[in-house]
Specification:
InterPro entries: GrpE, GrpE_CC, GrpE_head. It holds the Pfam family GrpE. This is Protein GrpE. Its main location: cytoplasm. It is found in: Cytoplasm. The protein has 233 residues and is of the alpha+beta class. Among the domains are: 52 residues; 57 residues, Nucleotide Exchange Factor Grpe, Chain A, domain 2. The chain contains four helices and six strands. A three-stranded antiparallel β-sheet has the order 1-4-5. Helix 3 packs antiparallel against helix 4. The radius of gyration is 59 Å and the shape is elongated. The termini are far apart.
Length: 233
């Protein structure tokens, strides 16, 4: 039942005003909360953008906000690091190229050694074959000399064969070591067998027991000699 008295109508009016005020306060709080949330979200977005910009600009840009001189030093260091990294990359490429060249050079050298050895073997075989071909000719001459009659004088044939053999040795730069009696003893080319009484001066060659040989000034076999004691028999 509605109170229609003046006091009742005043009370209802006050209640309506209070409800309206409460509703307005609630709407204001909601708007304020939304604004606060928006500001926080905007601040976070700005912080993210600033972080990304700082990362892109480098350490020097971030340091510049606090100390410009230090930022310049940091920027110089960053530039040096960038140059060194570039130089290092170039050196790595150069080292790889040199390594490849070294491997190719080593392979070429090994192939050259194989070819040179093969060539030397071929030359040695050819030289040996040529020498044998000439020596067997001397043997054939000796066989023919022995095939003569027993009463035949084979000395001329033997002498001719010896001359031919000496010519073959000469073509190979081989010479005999056959010192004359009375010459000085050469310990690099002579082998002293014994000392004997001789009319040759003391300490000189008395006689040659067996001649030696040398090839291209290299002694192949020393001449075996006797040395005079200086006393005549």
């Amino acid at each position: 039942m509605t109170d229609e008295s003046p006091e009742g109508r005043v009370s209802e009016s006050e209640d309506a005003d209070a409800a309206a005020e409460a509703e307005r306060n609630g709407e204001a709080e909601a708007v304020g909360a939304e604004a606060t949330d928006g500001e926080m979200a905007g601040g976070e977005a700005m912080d993210d953008e600033a972080a990304e910009a700082g990362a892109e600009d480098g350490v020097s840009s971030r340091v510049a906000a606090y100390d410009e001189e230090l930022a310049d030093e940091v920027a110089e260091l960053e530039s040096r690091v960038a140059r060194l990294e570039t130089e290092l990359a170039e050196k790595d490429e150069e080292a790889d190229e040199l390594q490849d060249r070294l491997k190719r050079t080593q392979a070429d050298f090994q192939n050259y050694k194989k070819r040179a050895k093969k060539r030397q073997d071929q030359i040695r075989e050819t030289a040996t074959e040529d020498f044998v071909e000439r020596v067997v000719t001397v043997r054939d001459n000796l066989v023919r000399a022995l095939d003569q009659d027993e009463d035949a004088d084979i000395r001329p044939g033997i002498e001719s064969t010896l001359e031919e053999f000496d010519r073959i040795l000469a073509t190979e730069d081989v010479s005999t070591i056959d010192p004359e009696p009375g010459t000085d003893v050469d310990p690099t080319r002579h082998e002293v067998m014994m000392r004997v009484a001789s009319d040759q001066p003391e300490g000189t060659v008395a006689d040659v027991y067996q001649p030696g040989y040398e090839m291209a000034e290299k002694v192949i076999r020393e001449a075996q000699i006797t040395v005079s004691t200086g006393d005549e028999e």
